[in-house]
Specification:
heterodimer, A: 246 residues, mainly alpha, 7 helices, 0% strand, B: 60 residues
Chain lengths: 246, 60
């Protein structure tokens, strides 16, 4: 199926119906492997067993930022290429990205308490991730405020692109400012500094999170296409009702 | 039991972190599944009342 054919919502829906069961199965298998590796991973020489929180926290942080990156590409699709599924993709990603960001914030706090002695500090990394979460909530509110999906899509796309400024701030906050949060130890220029016995479960859990994101995003896009069909039919019904203006 | 004992003095933080992850991610899965059913039901209800999209070839 050529890529451009996916611009047709009906063809996209039929593709989603075919791939969702396979993606769901792969996600469950990846989580089973990741959780097994996380449970059997050795303790860290500094963090002890608390390092196990890393396996649920770090992939959530990557997905929180990755989702906004994907939404920014979709925003370009809406504003520049006017792809019919671009704002569907952007809107469907918002609750998924918000959930991963919330998960990142809560598990980070639970990791911080035994390691730093506090659940929260207003340092650059933590604050910029909190701002990311608030921006997800803001986009949700925007989509609920504007009734017409095409108008809401354009406004949300602009807000998404403006919000993308926060992504490099989150990534490099630990380098630019003196933060309580540790610097990058996996996605860095010199390669990972984590021992392979901890890196393997981390990357397996990251794969599971990515598969879960793809599965949920496609399912949410399918829901959004159906929601728009329902909206169109309701408008048609209202217009054909006796006494309507048309 | 031995597994939880091996988690050390901060076991409660680790268990709560995994429980929170499970609750958030499973809630998201459940919400998307529930939303799918709701949209399918709404679509079926409208179609049963004779409101059909033009692309299906039948008049509304």
């Amino acid at each position: 199926m050529p890529f451009l054919d996916l611009a047709n919502p009906t063809r996209f829906l039929s593709l989603v119906q075919r791939v969702l069961p396979w993606l769901s199965g792969a996600t469950v298998l990846a989580f089973a492997a990741g959780l097994w590796l996380a449970a059997t991973a050795p303790d860290d020489y500094q963090h002890g067993a608390v390092v196990k929180i890393m396996f649920v926290h770090v992939p959530a942080a990557w997905l929180a930022m990755g989702t906004w990156t994907l939404m920014s590409i979709a925003a370009l699709g809406t504003l520049v290429w006017r792809h019919p599924l671009a704002d569907v993709a952007a809107k469907a990603a918002i609750p998924v990205g918000a959930a991963f960001t919330l998960l990142c914030l809560i598990t980070g706090s639970l990791w911080g308490r035994p390691m730093w002695g506090t659940y929260w500090v207003w340092d650059a990394r933590l604050t910029s991730v909190l701002i990311l979460f608030l921006m997800y909530l803001g986009l949700m509110a925007l989509w609920r405020t504007v009734d017409d999906p095409s108008r809401a899509g354009r406004a949300a796309a602009i807000l998404t692109l403006v919000g993308a400024v926060n992504l490099p701030i989150i990534k490099f906050s630990v380098d630019w400012w003196n933060t309580l949060h540790q610097p990058a130890s996996v996605l860095r220029v010199g390669g990972p500094t984590i021992h392979s016995s901890l890196l393997a479960p981390l990357l397996t859990m990251a794969l599971a999170y990515v598969l879960l994101f793809v599965t949920l995003h496609l399912a949410a896009m399918r829901n959004e296409i159906l929601r728009r069909r329902v909206r169109t039919l309701m408008l048609m019904q209202a217009q054909s009702a006796p006494g309507s203006a048309s | 039991m031995n597994f939880f004992a091996n988690l050390g003095q901060h076991a409660n933080f680790i268990v709560i972190a995994y429980a929170v992850a499970a609750v958030i991610l499973l809630s998201l899965v459940a919400w998307i599944a529930f939303d799918y059913r709701a949209q399918r039901r709404a679509l079926a209800e409208l179609e049963s009342r004779g409101v059909i999209r033009r692309s299906t070839g039948r008049p509304a």
